[in-house]
Task: structure prediction
Amino acid sequence: MRSTFKVLFYVKKGSEKPNGNLPLMCRLTVDGEIKQFSCKMDVPLRLWDVKNNRASGKSVEAQRINLAVDKIRVEVNRRYQELMQTDGYVTAAKLKDAYLGIGVKQETLLKLFEQHNAEFAKKVGHSRAQGTFRRYQTVCSHIREFLPHTYKREDIPLKDSTSHSSTTSSISCARRRNAAPIPCGAT
Result:
């Protein structure tokens, strides 16, 4: 389902700072629903071009403002695309929260694996075998060693791990120490 989506930047008149500048705001409109937030920067009214939603001129200050506006626009568009891909729909509130990082619970690969192992451990002896549990623990420890070595990070968000799936799939499912990695699914 396609939705209407617009990003608008404006200065908030009536909230003039002591130096005469006005706060820069961003308004997100998705299917007629409007949400707005502060861009955390002030703009001189004389520089703001209402028609183009940008600072006018070629001064260093105008270029700095326009660069910030462009970065916000690109990031908002990226978040919109992500939400459309993951959820299939977007609301203005979800988009604003995604951009600002509000309420975003980030699942990580190791956290999920450790959660799986904790649940699996409860079933050992009933419906799961001890040997299988040990293998899962081994795989988890190999991943714990692999991530800092390959990605220079202790853990990676699951969204990042899907973007690295071609590389990550070459992690040995049950890699032996000092052995060449065997791609998952290979025999």
Observations:
- The longest helix spans residues 60-87.
- Strands lie at 5-11, 21-30, 33-44, 48-49, 54-55.
- The two ends are 42 Å apart (CA to CA).
- The first strand starts at residue 5 and ends at 11.
